[in-house]
Amino acid sequence: MQKSIKTVPDNGGHFGPYGGMYVPETLMEPLQELAREYEKARRDKRFRQELDYYLREYVGRPTPLYFAERMTDELRGPKIYLKREDLLHTGAHKINNTVGQILLAKRMNKRRIIAETGAGQHGVATATVAAMFGMECVVYMGAVDMQRQALNVYRMRLLGADVRSVTAGQQTLKEAINEAMRDWVTNVRSTHYILGSVLGAHPYPMMVRDFQSVIGLEARTQILKQEGRLPAALVACVGGGSNSIGLFHAFLGDKRVRMIGVEGGGRGIRPGDHAARFQRGGSLGVLQGTRTFVLQDDDGQIMLTHSVSAGLDYAAVGPEHSYLRDQKRIEYTYATDDEALEAFQFCSRVEGIIPALESAHAVAHVMKNARKLRGVVIVNLSGRGDKDVMQVADILKLEK
Amino acid sequence: MNRIDAKFAALRAAERKGFIAYICAGDPNLKMTISLAREFERVGVDVLELGIPFSDPLADGVVNQLAAERALRSGTTLAGVLDAVARLRRAGCRIPIVFYIYYNLIHRHGVGRFAREAAAAGVDGALALDLPPEEAAAYERAMKRAGLCPIYLIAPTTPEKRIAEICRHASGFIYYVSREGVTGMQKTVSGSIAPRMAVIRRHTSIPVAVGFGVSDPEQARNIAQHGDAVVVGSAIVNQIAKGRSARAVSRFVAPMVKAVNDARPRR
Ligand SMILES: Cc1ncc(COP(=O)(O)O)c(C=O)c1O
Description:
Chain A is α/β, with parallel strands linked by helices. Chain A is 44% helix and 19% strand. In chain A, the strands form three sheets. A six-stranded mixed β-sheet of chain A has the order 3-4-14-9-10-13, sandwiched between helices. A four-stranded antiparallel β-sheet of chain A has the order 1-2-12-11. In chain B, helix 8 links the parallel strand 6 (152-154) and strand 7 (174-177). Chain B contains twelve helices and nine strands. A nine-stranded parallel β-sheet of chain B has the order 5-4-3-2-1-9-8-7-6. The longest helix of chain B is centred in the last third of the chain and has 17 residues, at 246-262. The interface between A and B is large, with 40 and 40 residues.
């Protein structure tokens, strides 16, 4: 259907100069085996049917593309639609990917599942499918994230997962990935690692993108049906980059559709205060298996990051995003903590939808730029905000 | 001739096995690293592997993670380690030195610049542990141009076809990781070393060092029967973590060196 931009990555997982496989030797063969198995699975009609079945009957797809009438009226700018990934089972887009990967793990006879999690949404989505398929599940989570997303920790434990606290470094997503990779290197023969975003070594960035691209495939059909035209712009938050690439991918060939990725601007673009890899402080590097934009210092040490949203608080961005930015196909910007908190409350008040703090960054961008945006805009509401309510209550109380 | 090649040639001529000691550079500071290098040379360590501390050492177990944290806390940088190596060479230290390094540090420094500066300082090779041959074309060219050995890992999960490919890229020595996992000490030695070594030998004649988890003279002796050299890391780093002096650490290392040197090939 679409041209060159959709032919990436190559066989080695390269998106132009980005991506690839930068892992210790022990993981090379398992990753290549995973890539081979995934290639087979995605051509296998039965695999597709099984995946569709679970997405429909268990996960709750398709999700509505909801016309946010009051938000549109309030902002007096574009006509705003929300892609309601928050309505999925477990409350975020993450489960689109975990269902796909657990079916793959089953095919490969791996009985043990591990995952990392930041906001806890990916951890919950992994623990959920592991419970459904009766598999052992270990989730690594930074100690700081365990605190700010305590509800999700309890959910994972209810679902039977072993949640392990990671206390290295800044105790957030990056350290959780390090620890998950250490586990995988050690137990690779029995274990499948369900990585939660378009990060890491090949085939993960491609595979997770493919599993998430259902978001945009649905949205494209829905908007054509509801509006009779393509949207002027798509807006999504970018942590690792899976919900954004998931929404954008089906539209890549639609030249007139603008795509805007919103990173975590934290307390502002100063070293250590943000997680916006495409802003100042971000440069080309190699982290956790992939070559991409990374927040690092002059020596190549990875910098501390900050975002009020645990799901955006990470030093690297998925390699395909670096590629599509070079191609000038996606624009990247950021929203600060304060802007996201304001959007969190605004969306709740005017639409009756409490968004995840991650998704609130996308809403914040539309709020800020309402006058500059025209036509139809689709915002990816990647998750719901139940997990963030306590944290936001604390922050807002402190500020009063 | 590169110091690594010369060392293994000498070991072979003497029908002896080599001992490779790993420490994290700058743990707890570079002054200690310099003292350790000289002590190790004195007690007969054959190759010194210097870890360059990185913020995200995902292939390392907790002992080496903590070492990297200590090293970073004392302000250790790649440039600082290069300078320390240059000082060692000026002081007459001739032990072959290999960097054990995460690729981002090389990438950030610039591949060509890294190789040139490392060679100028007196480094002999590097093991970029998250850089498989598939991604290493530019790095390998730069290393070879500078006369440095790109050293590669082979793991228990590496299939034979891949072993053959890695052997085509390797120089200096090959590092056979004797078990799946991160760095760290082990109570028992993996049983599958001998058959894997036989496979590697089918594809190369360059020396093979075996490591990951070796922690006492007995294990070192066992492992030495299979390879050309034995690597001991975490067990030594653990001594440094306890605040021992360089002299005391070398007293810990010496019996392992002797056990390895005395090991005979298993026939
Ligand atoms: C609801 C939600 N949205 C977005 C993200 C960010 O991840 P990604 O950029 O991969 O979509 C997360 C991550 O935890 C999340 O939970």
